[in-house]
Amino acid sequence: MTVIRTAEELRTIYKPPVERAVLKQMSKLDKHAHAFLQRSPFVMIGSCAQSGRADVSPKGDKPGFVRALDDNTVAVPDRPGNNRLDTYENLLTNPNVGLLFMIPGMNETLRINGRAEISIDPELMKLFEHDGRLPLSVMTVKVEEVYLHCAKAFMRSELWNPDSFMERSSFPSFGAMLKDQAGLQDAAADIDRSLAERYKATLY
């Protein structure tokens, strides 16, 4: 297997980026980035532990759930989850994060890179109250790089095209997969039922 080891070797395969791909990168949010955040219900968060172990975790809520506190800071509420805390534990030793925001039906995405902190400031958490429930914490990110990402990946994958959607019954249920992967003794249907009940009770 031939493996690329250096940036010089890499550039023998790939052309230099076009000028607009470089010029589009900003150091703070502009009006278009603000508007994108206000419409986005979903973000993927990439982080890396000090040891080098990488992780990508999803966050989702109603459009605009990630708030821009100003042109240089965004805040992401943390709702109840599985409590693995992969992202948050990474941040304690390596605060660098990459955020990829999506809007259903839109092929372009918004990328924000920066340095994150975990906050339990009461006033900040109050901004994200939902039906009387506060988030467990809020991740604030100091923006260092922000830019729109082109549509090619979504065009190739046809991610938003209903004709490309899988028939869900053609794939095992989450409970069935979890039973196999975790070696659980419960019936898959019971696991699915338990998960559905937990989702209702702990969504917020």
Textual characterization of the structure:
It comes from Tianweitania aestuarii. Residues 29-150 form the Pyridoxamine 5'-phosphate oxidase N-terminal domain. Pfam families: PNPOx_N. This is Pyridoxamine 5'-phosphate oxidase family protein. The protein is an alpha+beta fold. The longest helix is centred in the last third of the chain and has 15 residues, at 188-202. It has a seven-stranded antiparallel beta sheet, with helices on one face. It folds into two domains: 16-157, Electron Transport, Fmn-binding Protein, Chain A (Pnp Oxidase, Chain A), CATH 2.30.110.10; 166-202, no CATH class. The protein contains eight helices and seven strands. β5 and β6 (109-119) form a beta hairpin.
Please tag this protein with its features.
alpha+beta; 204 residues; 8 helices; 27% strand; single chain; Pnp Oxidase, Chain A; seven-stranded antiparallel beta sheet
Which overall shape is indicated by the principal axes computed on the Cα atoms? globular
**Name of the CATH superfamily of the largest domain:** Electron Transport, Fmn-binding Protein, Chain A
Tally the helices: 8
Total domains, how many? 2
Tell me about the largest β-sheet. 7 strands, antiparallel
Provide the gyration radius in Å.
20 Å
Q: Residue share in helices?
A: 25-40%
Count of β-strands: 7
- As residue ranges, the low-confidence spans are none
What is the CATH C level class of the largest domain, in words?
A: Mainly Beta
What's the N-to-C terminus distance? 48 Å
Helix-strand topology string: HHHEEEEHEEHEHHH
Strand content: 25-35%
Structural class: alpha+beta
- Strands of the largest sheet, in order across it? 2-1-5-6-7-4-3
Assign the CATH topology of the largest domain.
Answer: Pnp Oxidase, Chain A
Q: Mind telling me which CATH architecture of the largest domain this is?
A: Roll
In round numbers, the mean pLDDT is: 96
